[in-house]
Design brief:
4 helices; rod-shaped; 4 strands; Hypothetical Protein Ychn, Chain: A; alpha+beta
Length: about 220
């Protein structure tokens, strides 16, 4: 008996080895789907964590840079404040010194000149004359004081005391044949201000506020 020809199957192995087609059950498909999902979720979570870490690191870096910038600004501000405070202190010290000098000169306008006259006479034993120029209100007082110093120093030269309305209280000029001394508070103050300005410039300090000279208001009164 001749057997009927076999029906062609697409899974027929023409090489002679016949392969059975695997049929996946729904449970197997679900298992593979879960594995794929879990793997994708883990990879996604890892990427997400890296992204968040990167964002956090960037945020920390930005915050650190801002803090550093703020600190630098603060230091600069403190440094500028310190410089300004030092300059203000110099200005205040100058103003106080001027006020004290003005007060002293108002109470004893002849004091500085008296000291200068006494010191000068100690080295002028043979000078032919001594000329003192001062504010008119001090002429008599300085003449009396100078004569006492002349006697003590053994000075025998001629004494001339002249009043000059252009000379301020406490100021004056002491002159002899080959020299002289000038005391001018405005000149002294100018030299002080030059020294203050030079110090501030060398120290990187701003120029201090310079109070007006109180002596200028009373020089010619």
């Amino acid at each position: 008996m001749t057997s009927a020809p076999a029906k062609f199957q697409f899974d027929l192995d023409l090489s002679g080895n016949q392969r059975q087609t695997q049929v996946m059950t729904e449970a197997r498909i679900a298992e593979l789907h879960k594995k794929a999902y879990d793997k994708g979720f883990a990879e996604g979570l890892g990427q997400g964590e890296q992204t968040e870490l990167a964002r956090a690191a960037a945020a920390l870096t930005a915050a650190a840079e801002k803090i550093a910038g703020d600190a630098t600004t603060l230091v600069r501000s403190l440094s500028a404040y310190d410089r300004q405070a030092r300059a203000d202190g110099i200005g205040i010290a100058r103003a106080i010194a001027l006020k004290l000098a003005s007060s002293l000169i108002s109470r004893m306008p002849e004091a500085e000149l008296d000291t200068l006259i006494e010191e000068s006479l100690n080295t002028l034993e043979r000078a032919p004359h001594l000329v003192i120029r001062c504010t008119p209100v001090l002429v008599d007082k300085l003449k009396e004081m100078t004569e006492a110093h002349m006697a003590a120093a053994g000075f025998s030269g001629r004494l001339i005391v002249l009043g000059d309305p252009e000379i301020g209280a406490g100021d004056g000029r002491i002159e002899w044949a080959d020299g002289g001394i000038v005391r001018d508070m405005n000149i002294i103050l100018s030299e002080i201000d030059k020294s203050v300005a030079a110090y501030c410039a060398a120290s990187g300090l701003p120029a201090p506020m310079m109070a007006p000279n109180p002596l200028a208001e009373t020089d010619h009164e």
